[in-house]
Write a structure and sequence with these properties.
Cytochrome Bc1 Complex, Chain D, domain 2, 7 helices
Protein backbone atom coordinates (compact mmCIF):
# COMPACT_ATOMS: atom_id res chain seq x y z
CA UNK A 1 0.00 0.00 0.00
CA UNK A 2 1.08 3.56 0.60
CA UNK A 3 3.68 4.34 3.18
CA UNK A 4 4.96 7.76 4.20
CA UNK A 5 7.80 7.71 1.70
CA UNK A 6 5.50 6.90 -1.26
CA UNK A 7 3.10 9.68 -0.23
CA UNK A 8 5.98 12.14 0.06
CA UNK A 9 7.26 11.20 -3.41
CA UNK A 10 3.77 11.62 -4.88
CA UNK A 11 3.29 15.07 -3.33
CA UNK A 12 6.80 16.05 -4.44
CA UNK A 13 6.09 14.95 -8.01
CA UNK A 14 2.85 16.95 -8.18
CA UNK A 15 4.53 20.05 -6.71
CA UNK A 16 7.49 19.65 -9.09
CA UNK A 17 5.19 19.39 -12.11
CA UNK A 18 3.28 22.47 -10.98
CA UNK A 19 6.55 24.37 -10.55
CA UNK A 20 7.67 23.38 -14.06
CA UNK A 21 4.37 24.64 -15.55
CA UNK A 22 4.50 27.92 -13.61
CA UNK A 23 8.12 28.61 -14.51
CA UNK A 24 7.47 27.62 -18.12
CA UNK A 25 4.62 30.13 -18.31
CA UNK A 26 6.76 32.83 -16.71
CA UNK A 27 9.68 32.31 -19.09
CA UNK A 28 7.41 32.11 -22.12
CA UNK A 29 5.89 35.44 -21.09
CA UNK A 30 9.34 36.95 -20.72
CA UNK A 31 10.38 35.68 -24.15
CA UNK A 32 7.17 36.94 -25.74
CA UNK A 33 7.56 40.43 -24.28
CA UNK A 34 11.31 40.34 -25.04
CA UNK A 35 12.31 40.87 -21.45
CA UNK A 36 10.18 43.94 -20.94
CA UNK A 37 8.42 44.36 -17.66
CA UNK A 38 4.84 44.88 -18.81
CA UNK A 39 2.17 45.36 -16.19
CA UNK A 40 -1.53 44.83 -16.93
CA UNK A 41 -3.24 48.05 -17.99
CA UNK A 42 0.07 49.69 -18.93
CA UNK A 43 0.47 51.05 -22.46
CA UNK A 44 3.39 49.76 -24.51
CA UNK A 45 5.17 51.82 -27.11
CA UNK A 46 5.03 50.43 -30.64
CA UNK A 47 8.52 49.27 -31.66
CA UNK A 48 7.96 49.71 -35.38
CA UNK A 49 5.09 51.42 -37.15
CA UNK A 50 4.05 50.15 -40.56
CA UNK A 51 2.91 53.04 -42.76
CA UNK A 52 -0.45 52.47 -44.46
CA UNK A 53 -1.75 54.69 -47.23
CA UNK A 54 -5.26 56.07 -46.94
CA UNK A 55 -7.59 54.60 -49.56
CA UNK A 56 -10.37 57.13 -49.32
CA UNK A 57 -12.63 54.86 -47.26
CA UNK A 58 -14.34 53.22 -50.24
CA UNK A 59 -13.79 49.75 -48.81
CA UNK A 60 -15.20 50.74 -45.43
CA UNK A 61 -18.51 52.07 -46.73
CA UNK A 62 -21.44 49.84 -45.86
CA UNK A 63 -23.61 48.43 -48.58
CA UNK A 64 -26.87 50.35 -48.98
CA UNK A 65 -29.71 48.88 -46.94
CA UNK A 66 -32.38 47.14 -48.98
CA UNK A 67 -35.94 48.15 -48.00
CA UNK A 68 -37.90 45.51 -46.07
CA UNK A 69 -40.62 45.36 -48.76
CA UNK A 70 -38.05 44.33 -51.38
CA UNK A 71 -36.53 41.71 -49.10
CA UNK A 72 -39.97 40.39 -48.12
CA UNK A 73 -41.01 40.08 -51.78
CA UNK A 74 -38.00 37.83 -52.46
CA UNK A 75 -38.16 35.82 -49.20
CA UNK A 76 -37.53 32.07 -49.54
CA UNK A 77 -39.52 30.14 -46.93
CA UNK A 78 -37.64 26.89 -47.61
CA UNK A 79 -34.33 28.63 -46.81
CA UNK A 80 -35.88 29.88 -43.55
CA UNK A 81 -36.20 26.34 -42.26
CA UNK A 82 -32.41 26.07 -42.06
CA UNK A 83 -32.21 29.40 -40.24
CA UNK A 84 -34.67 28.10 -37.61
CA UNK A 85 -31.86 25.92 -36.23
CA UNK A 86 -30.69 29.07 -34.41
CA UNK A 87 -34.07 29.28 -32.66
CA UNK A 88 -34.76 25.60 -31.96
CA UNK A 89 -32.72 25.43 -28.74
CA UNK A 90 -35.00 27.95 -27.00
CA UNK A 91 -38.28 27.86 -28.98
CA UNK A 92 -40.71 25.21 -30.19
CA UNK A 93 -43.29 25.39 -32.97
CA UNK A 94 -46.01 23.37 -31.25
CA UNK A 95 -48.85 25.28 -29.56
CA UNK A 96 -48.40 25.49 -25.79
CA UNK A 97 -44.82 24.16 -25.86
CA UNK A 98 -43.00 26.95 -24.03
CA UNK A 99 -39.32 26.44 -23.37
CA UNK A 100 -36.73 29.06 -22.47
CA UNK A 101 -38.67 31.24 -24.89
CA UNK A 102 -42.37 31.14 -25.77
CA UNK A 103 -43.73 28.88 -28.49
CA UNK A 104 -43.45 30.29 -32.00
CA UNK A 105 -46.66 28.55 -33.06
CA UNK A 106 -48.53 30.99 -35.32
CA UNK A 107 -46.25 33.86 -34.24
CA UNK A 108 -46.59 36.01 -37.39
CA UNK A 109 -49.57 38.30 -36.83
CA UNK A 110 -50.05 37.30 -33.17
CA UNK A 111 -50.29 39.92 -30.41
CA UNK A 112 -47.05 40.46 -28.48
CA UNK A 113 -46.74 38.78 -25.05
CA UNK A 114 -49.89 36.72 -25.60
CA UNK A 115 -48.79 33.09 -25.10
CA UNK A 116 -50.51 31.50 -22.12
CA UNK A 117 -48.19 30.08 -19.49
CA UNK A 118 -45.10 32.09 -20.43
CA UNK A 119 -43.73 34.75 -18.06
CA UNK A 120 -42.82 37.70 -20.26
CA UNK A 121 -40.56 40.57 -19.19
CA UNK A 122 -43.00 43.23 -20.44
CA UNK A 123 -40.29 44.98 -22.46
CA UNK A 124 -41.84 44.09 -25.84
CA UNK A 125 -45.26 45.48 -24.91
CA UNK A 126 -43.64 48.89 -24.54
CA UNK A 127 -42.33 48.77 -28.12
CA UNK A 128 -44.96 47.02 -30.27
CA UNK A 129 -48.45 45.48 -30.07
CA UNK A 130 -48.39 42.80 -32.78
CA UNK A 131 -45.78 40.52 -34.38
CA UNK A 132 -45.98 41.78 -37.95
CA UNK A 133 -43.26 40.58 -40.33
CA UNK A 134 -41.63 44.04 -40.12
CA UNK A 135 -41.55 43.99 -36.31
CA UNK A 136 -40.14 40.46 -36.18
CA UNK A 137 -37.53 41.49 -38.77
CA UNK A 138 -36.34 44.42 -36.64
CA UNK A 139 -36.48 42.44 -33.38
CA UNK A 140 -34.41 39.56 -34.76
CA UNK A 141 -31.69 41.95 -35.89
CA UNK A 142 -30.92 43.11 -32.32
CA UNK A 143 -33.42 41.86 -29.71
CA UNK A 144 -31.97 43.78 -26.74
CA UNK A 145 -31.54 46.96 -28.77
CA UNK A 146 -35.09 46.73 -30.13
CA UNK A 147 -36.70 46.03 -26.75
CA UNK A 148 -34.34 46.87 -23.87
CA UNK A 149 -35.10 44.60 -20.93
CA UNK A 150 -36.31 41.66 -23.02
CA UNK A 151 -35.63 38.18 -21.68
CA UNK A 152 -34.31 37.06 -25.08
CA UNK A 153 -30.56 36.68 -24.76
CA UNK A 154 -29.89 35.85 -28.42
CA UNK A 155 -27.41 38.37 -29.89
CA UNK A 156 -29.36 38.77 -33.11
CA UNK A 157 -29.39 37.61 -36.70
CA UNK A 158 -27.31 40.07 -38.77
CA UNK A 159 -28.27 38.80 -42.23
CA UNK A 160 -31.39 40.56 -43.52
CA UNK A 161 -31.98 37.73 -46.02
CA UNK A 162 -31.84 35.11 -43.28
CA UNK A 163 -34.33 37.11 -41.20
CA UNK A 164 -36.93 37.46 -43.98
CA UNK A 165 -36.49 33.80 -44.96
CA UNK A 166 -37.05 32.73 -41.35
CA UNK A 167 -40.15 34.91 -41.01
CA UNK A 168 -41.56 33.56 -44.28
CA UNK A 169 -40.98 30.01 -43.06
CA UNK A 170 -42.60 30.73 -39.68
CA UNK A 171 -45.59 32.22 -41.49
CA UNK A 172 -46.09 29.11 -43.64
CA UNK A 173 -45.32 26.59 -40.87
CA UNK A 174 -47.30 27.70 -37.83
CA UNK A 175 -47.12 24.32 -36.14
CA UNK A 176 -43.96 22.86 -37.57
Amino acid sequence: MFDTMTGTKLVGAVCGALLVFLLGGYFAGELYSMGGHHHPGEEEEQAYIIPVEETGGAAEEAAPEVPFEELWASADASAGEAVFRNCRSCHALEAGDNRVGPTLYDVVGRPVDSVEGYAYSGALEEVVDEWTPEHIFEFLHDPRGYAPGTKMTYAGLPSAEDRVNLIAWLETNPGG
